[in-house]
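Request: Could I get any protein with tokenized structure?
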Amino acid sequence: QVKELLGVPIDYYAVINMGVLEKVVNAVGGVTVDNPFAFTYEGHHFKKGKQHLNGANALKYSRMRYDDPNGDYGRQKRQQQVMQAVMKQLKNPLNLFNGPEALGKVYSLTSTNMSMTEMLDLGLSNAGSFKKGINSQTIPSDGDWIDSYDLYGGQGIEIDFDTYQAKLKELGFR
């Protein structure tokens, strides 16, 4: 469990399967991202710089990793960027009811321990604070781990837990 791994109380969670990301992005009218480098993935060219993506292209943008100089970390950053763009779209309550895709559709595509009422209350009561941006961190981050092998020759990573704990403290979780 994340709560036990981090030693941080987690009151609420929401999990969005990247496979349903396309529908979520379309439900909020698309997202704008700032791509750090140009690449082509699954037949679509993503130019460097800001661009507005529909659901299908946001999913492709989120999935590419092999041509990313940062590999999985680069992919995670793009996934976070898309989710932050979705949250930015949700700042405008009118975006919750675009066309046939309503907030109920987005809610039905997530796995969460929050009720629809709790989600609405939390979202609307914090809508103003979204203007400050959303701070997201990936732990462990680059430099907190080294490539390693297990006793049987399987590849893995070795995490520097002291650095990891220090990062949690820096973020106010310790």
Q: What stands out?
A: Residues 39 and 46 are 5 Å apart (CA to CA). DSSP finds seven helices and eight strands in the chain. The mean pLDDT is 76. The radius of gyration is 18 Å.
